[in-house]
Structures are given as structure tokens and as C-alpha cells.
TrEMBL record:
One of its GO terms (biological process) is acetyl-CoA biosynthetic process. One of its GO terms (molecular function) is acetate-CoA ligase activity. This is acetate--CoA ligase. Residues 131-478 form the AMP-dependent synthetase/ligase domain.
Length: 671
């Protein structure tokens, strides 16, 4: 099994690696010398057996590959891209980018001029190479005993039928298609069908309310909305079709098709440019309405496939299960595209991990003999053998060292390396992640950058900091999976991501490199330690992460203030035992309105209705006033402290316009 402690297996003294882009400071460190090993006992080493069979089995091997990936990105990525099918190879430089707004518009292109199709590469290509009868999808329904599966050949048939139907009703290359489905096999099928005909899918998580769905429909103006009648989640039935009908009324659309008839099971592929859009996925930002993150075809294809293969050490004999819903980026990149591009067998689970009881996940692992299990740290469980597992993955939020150890010791039986994958909707695929087998892990650290990724930590002024430090996490050059724009708003793309720190992509996360503890005031929530390991601990902006669902506090606030009795609302995230973060809302009512339990419920209901149940506030804190600066800015730092009851850490409140509101808030904390 894996061993923890002072072992020096696989640890070599490596020289600092020079690179075209200057020193790769984050790498100095895979170099774990004697001093480190004797002082640390928090290193978790891969077993010899695991390392021996791994794609990347030593720090040196990683460093060699990494060095090439950043010094010669074109060569590195075009070698990998050549393993895919291209109707026509790219005729322009493999990559071109401008990351510096001072030099003109931000632009990123990979494999431009190349013609390909990601659906063809997922299905036809794998079928031609002998995998026609391999299971592509094992589907496990919400209710026990309800299951299904599709081989690669069967999946292709189903995709083609739907693709033909979409074509028949007028969907053409470049048209948007909204998909509002639970985790049925039809969800990946619908994504692939769109990709096959060059349509741009926009999956809307089926937990979103009709109003949220309508907002997205109005923004991307799809030709079609694909949905189903109803779904059961746990013991509850949700009538999706009614929600869609309501949304279509809101967004003034006509003509609704109630069923998808059977169409022929073959369908010509629409060859698209590598830079043609593949999908839009709406995600929350710190302000304003949700952003339509746009991913294109070629780079995304190459990147999701490669990250999947290396970060999970994927082998053709693996059975892979990712618990994410296709309504989020994790479901796009690591339920559908990444695994299928690799010809993997993927478990797709419709239900809730706790239904009918908390053992459900482990039943599924045992039933399908899952070998790679990828989930969010908030999923908790016990019992069952789980002998089949060999690699574990974690995503969505920082996993704290004790949760990490539990996942490692209990779920993985101290045998399975954990890939704690840090990435975002915007990045398309993993950015900072272990390559299991290549280096020792540290519980709670996402470790090192993936090939081609150059993370940097900058200070408030945007100056890069070397060595042990903390600051804002940025990336200094493009990678194939990067998003290319925000749909219909390139200016917002530049302003949000490229202007905060000139010359870099700003992630919205903090990062630090010092060993162990968080930097005090939460402004620098990620660090990189002296060994170069990266530690991410959260967002530096007003985005919160509830059970892996990304939510902008501004969206929840605007739902709350739409309530006729709410004058003002301020929402912050607080630590939550089960969900990672909980939603904590400070509410100022309109003049003269008394606090009541009924009003509390009706405020929460407003959020459920406008966004979805997953965004419902966990706590409503009545606030006669909110702490504001003299210029009228809400001091969220103070609200966060009040929400987490760190009342002795309120800091300087003298700059507040009305300092007494803080005392009022403390008094009302438990009302
Ligand atoms: C993939 C996904 C992105 C935000 C990101 C960060 C947080 C994701 C993490 C993590 C620490 C990890 N995040 N993975 N934080 N460690 N392994 O979750 O995308 O929904 O866009 O959220 O999630 O704060 O900025 P998305």
C-alpha cells in the first residue's frame, strides 16, 4: 500500500529547471531533499507498485515533460493532438495568444485551421480501433434496481438518432441548443449529438429554477431546448417539463416538441474548425448576471483527454465514476468528453449520493468495480469494501487535511493516491493536480501544475512573487483548454479575467507557498510552500462554493431584494460542515416591517424560485443596517466575521459610516 512518513522513495534531488519563460519557480521543489523528508511526516508516497505502472512515475519524468510543455508548447501539444482524428490538420501556428490587454484584444487560439469533430473522436474513432463492444456508459438510476448500459457502438447509434432529429427540426452548425436534463444517459447523448452536427450546447443544471433557465435561454437564444417530463431525485419527483414550459413562457418562445422520435442510427459528421465553439456553460461571477463561458473544439478536446489520462493515471481496464452532474463543468470535461475520448467505461449516476441511504455510493463502487472515483470533498460515507478502487479524485473546493486523510485512509484503504484537481469552468480542464505515482502527496495540497500550465502568484500590485509566498493565483500563458470568451461580452471577459493583473489570466483564487497554515485574514487563500506544493483555500472574490455548486453572492442578493419586503441584502459564505460553504444572508427589511418566521421562509422561497433550491440561504440574519464605508461600500470582511462568529476579529470598524450597526448585528445574531 501507499506509505506515509519519512520515506525517500521516488524522491530525487533535482536541479532547478531553467526555462524560456525564466525560472519555473513552482518546480524547484518537487525536489524533496533530506532535510525536508526528515522534518516532514505529512508526505504520502505512492507505492512502488503504483509508481511502476503509472504513466508518469517519477518527478524527473514529469519535469522533463513539463519543461518541454512550457518551452515548446506547440511541439508538445501537437504531438498529443496528432493522436486524434483530424479531417484536416491545422494550417496556422499551433497556438497564438495575447494575454496582455495593453497589446490589444485578448485572444487565444489553438490548432486554428484544423478540422475535426469531438463526437467523432469520442465514438467513431474508438469504435474503429476495436472498442465497439466495450461499455461506454454504465447507467445507474435513482431507484435501486433501475439500470442500463450502452456499448460504444450503441452509444453512437443513440447519438446519431438524436443528431438526425435535431437536424430534421432545423438545428444547424453554430446554433445553440439548451439541454435541461437530469443525469440520464440522454444527457451525454444530447451533448454528443450537438457536437456531432456542430451545434453549440448549453447544459443548464436541472436544479436551476424556471427563472434561471429562462435567463439563460434569453441570453443564448437556442433553437431547441432538450428536456424530459420528470425526474426523481431521492424520494422526490421534479417535473422538469413544467419548469421548461414556465421558462419558455418567460422567454417568449413558441413550439414545444414533446418527444424525440426514432431517427436513423447513422449521421454524417459535421467537420468543424478547432476554434469553432463546442459549448457554452453559464457560471457565476462576483457581480452581475451569470457568464456564458465559451469553449471551442480542438484545444478543449486535446486538453480534457490528456488531463484525464494523466491525472487519473487512466488505463483501458479502468472503470471510472465521476459523481458530478453534467450541468457543471466537471460533468462536461470528466463525465462526458475526457473519459470518452480515452475510450473509458464511465458510470453515470442519476440519483443523490445519500438515497436510499449514505451507503449508496459504495454500493455503486462495488457493483461496477469502480477503479477511479472522482468526487467532491463534501461527499461523506462509510462501510463497504471498495476493493476495486485504485485512484481517488477530489474537486470543487479545498479539501482540508483531515478530510483528505479520511478519504485516503477510509475510502481508499490507504492504498489509493488522491488527485486533488484544482481547476475552473473557465480553464476547461485540470490546472494544478497530482499525477498519481509521480511524486509524494501532501494532504490538502493540489501539488503541481499540469503540463503546459504556468501558474504564478502575484501580490496586490500584480508583481510575481517567487519562492515561499502567498498571493493571488494567476496563469501566465495559454493552455489548450482555456475558455476563449464570455458569450456576447468579450469586454467583460477581458475586464474580469485579464485586467485585474496586466499580462496574466486571473483565476479569482488566492494561492500561497508556505508550509501548512492558512494566511490569516483570508485575503490570500492559496499558497505555494517551500517545496513548491500549491495550497488553494478559496476565492478572493464574492463567489462561494456550496456542495461544489458555484454561486455568486450577487445573484443571491438580487433574488432576495426582489422580495417586496426586502430593502437590502448582503450575502457571504460561511464554513459549513456538510456543504463546504453555506449561504449566510444579512437582510434589511423595508421600513416598519417586523421580523417573522414566515417572512424568513418567504425570503428563502424567493431564492429557491429564482435560482434553485441549491442556492437557498442557510441562515437569514436580520439587519437593521449594514456596515458600509463612507462611500457606501458594504464591508463584507466584517459581515464574514460576524457570520462565522469571530467577533473578536472584527478589526478596524472606525472607517464605517455608522459604526453602531455592528453592535446591532451582533445583538440580532441569534434571532
Ligand atoms: C471544477 C470546478 C471553480 C472554483 C475555483 C476554486 C474552487 C475547484 C478546487 C477548488 C480548491 C480544488 N475549486 N477545485 N479549490 N481545490 N481542488 O469546480 O469549477 O465550478 O467553475 O469552480 O472552485 O475556488 O475557482 P467551478
Amino acid at each position: 500500500g501507499m506509505a506515509t512518513g519519512n520515506k525517500l522513495r521516488h524522491v530525487e534531488s533535482l536541479q532547478e529547471m531553467p526555462s524560456g519563460a525564466g525560472k519555473i519557480s513552482c518546480l524547484n521543489a518537487v525536489i524533496l531533499g533530506e532535510a525536508l523528508a526528515s522534518e516532514e511526516n505529512d508526505l504520502v508516497f505512492p507505492s512502488d507498485d503504483f509508481a511502476r505502472q503509472a504513466h508518469v512515475s517519477s518527478p524527473q519524468q514529469y519535469l522533463e515533460m513539463y519543461k518541454r510543455s512550457v518551452e515548446d508548447p506547440a511541439g508538445f501539444w501537437s504531438d498529443i493532438a496528432s493522436e486524434f482524428y483530424w479531417k484536416q490538420k491545422w494550417d496556422q501556428p499551433v497556438c497564438s495568444e495575447n494575454f496582455d490587454f495593453r497589446k490589444g484584444n485578448i485572444s487565444i487560439q489553438w490548432f486554428k485551421g484544423g478540422l475535426t469533430n469531438i463526437c467523432y473522436n469520442c465514438l467513431d474513432r474508438n469504435i474503429e480501433s476495436g472498442n465497439a463492444d466495450k461499455i461506454a456508459i454504465y447507467w445507474e438510476g435513482n431507484d435501486l434496481g433501475v439500470e442500463d448500459s450502452l456499448t460504444y457502438a450503441q452509444l453512437l447509434d443513440r447519438v446519431c438518432q438524436l443528431a438526425n432529429y435535431l437536424k430534421a427540426i432545423g438545428v444547424k452548425k453554430g446554433d445553440a441548443v439548451v439541454i435541461y436534463l437530469p443525469m440520464l444517459m440522454e444527457l451525454p447523448i444530447a451533448m454528443l449529438a450537438c457536437a456531432r452536427i456542430g451545434a453549440v450546447h448549453s447544459v443548464v443544471f436541472a436544479g436551476f429554477s424556471s427563472e434561471s433557465l429562462a435567463q439563460r435561454i434569453l441570453d443564448c437564444k437556442p433553437k431547441v431546448v432538450i428536456t424530459c417530463n420528470a425526474v426523481k431525485r431521492g424520494a422526490k419527483a421534479i417535473h422538469l417539463k413544467d419548469i421548461v414550459d414556465a421558462a419558455l413562457v418567460d422567454s417568449a418562445k413558441n413550439g414545444i416538441s414533446d418527444f424525440v422520435p426514432k431517427y436513423p442510427p447513422t449521421c454524417e459528421v459535421e467537420w468543424v474548425d478547432a476554434e469553432d465553439p463546442l459549448f457554452l456553460l453559464y457560471t457565476s461571477g462576483s457581480t452581475g448576471k451569470p457568464k456564458g463561458v465559451l469553449h471551442t473544439t480542438g484545444g478543449y478536446m486535446v486538453y480534457t483527454a490528456t488531463t484525464f489520462k494523466y491525472a487519473f493515471d487512466y488505463k483501458p481496464s479502468d472503470i471510472y465514476w465521476c459523481t458530478a452532474d453534467c450541468g457543471w463543468i466537471t460533468g462536461h470535461s470528466y463525465v462526458t468528453y475526457g473519459p470518452l475520448l480515452n475510450g473509458a467505461s464511465v458510470v453515470v449516476f442519476e440519483g443523490a449520493p445519500t438515497y436510499p441511504d449514505a451507503g449508496r455510493c459504495w454500493d455503486i463502487v462495488d457493483k461496477f468495480k469502480v477503479t477511479i472515483f472522482y468526487t467532491a470533498p463534501t461527499l461523506y460515507v462509510t462501510r463497504y469494501s471498495r476493493k476495486s478502487l485504485r485512484v481517488l479524485g477530489s474537486v470543487g473546493e479545498p479539501i482540508n487535511p483531515s478530510a483528505w486523510r479520511w478519504f485516503f485512509n477510509v475510502v481508499g484503504n490507504s492504498r489509493c493516491p488522491i488527485s486533488d484537481t484544482w481547476w475552473q469552468t473557465e480553464t476547461g480542464g485540470f490546472m494544478i493536480t497530482p499525477l498519481p505515482g509521480a511524486w509524494p502527496l501532501k494532504p490538502g495540497s493540489a501539488t503541481f501544475p499540469f503540463f503546459g500550465v504556468q501558474p504564478v502568484i502575484v501580490d496586490e500590485k500584480g508583481v510575481e512573487i517567487e519562492g515561499e509566498c502567498s498571493g493571488y493565483l494567476c496563469v501566465k500563458s495559454s493552455w489548450p483548454g482555456a475558455f476563449r470568451t464570455l458569450y456576447g461580452d468579450h469586454e467583460r471577459y477581458e475586464t474580469t479575467y485579464f485586467k485585474p493583473f496586466a499580462g496574466y489570466y486571473f483565476t479569482g483564487d488566492g494561492c500561497s507557498r508556505s508550509n501548512g497554515q492558512k494566511i490569516a485574514d483570508g485575503l490570500h487563500p492559496c499558497f505555494r510552500d517551500k517545496d513548491g506544493y500549491h495550497w488553494l483555500t478559496g476565492r478572493v472574490d464574492d463567489v462561494i462554493n456550496v456542495s461544489g455548486h458555484r454561486i455568486g453572492t450577487a445573484e443571491v442578493e438580487s433574488a432576495l431584494v426582489s422580495h417586496p419586503k426586502c430593502a437590502e441584502a448582503a450575502v457571504v459564505g460561511v464554513e459549513h460542515e456538510v456543504k463546504g460553504q453555506g449561504i449566510y444572508a444579512f437582510i434589511t427589511l423595508v421600513e416598519g416591517e417586523p421580523y417573522s418566521e414566515e417572512l424568513r421562509k418567504s425570503l428563502i422561497l424567493t431564492v429557491r424560485k429564482q435560482i434553485g433550491a441549491f442556492a437557498a440561504p442557510d441562515k437569514i440574519h436580520w439587519a437593521p443596517g449594514l456596515p458600509k464605508t463612507r462611500s457606501g461600500k458594504i464591508m463584507r470582511r466584517i459581515l464574514r466575521k460576524i457570520a462565522s462568529r469571530q467577533l473578536d476579529e472584527l478589526g478596524d470598524t472606525s472607517t464605517l459610516a455608522e459604526p453602531h450597526v455592528v453592535e446591532q448585528l451582533i445583538e440580532l445574531a441569534d434571532r
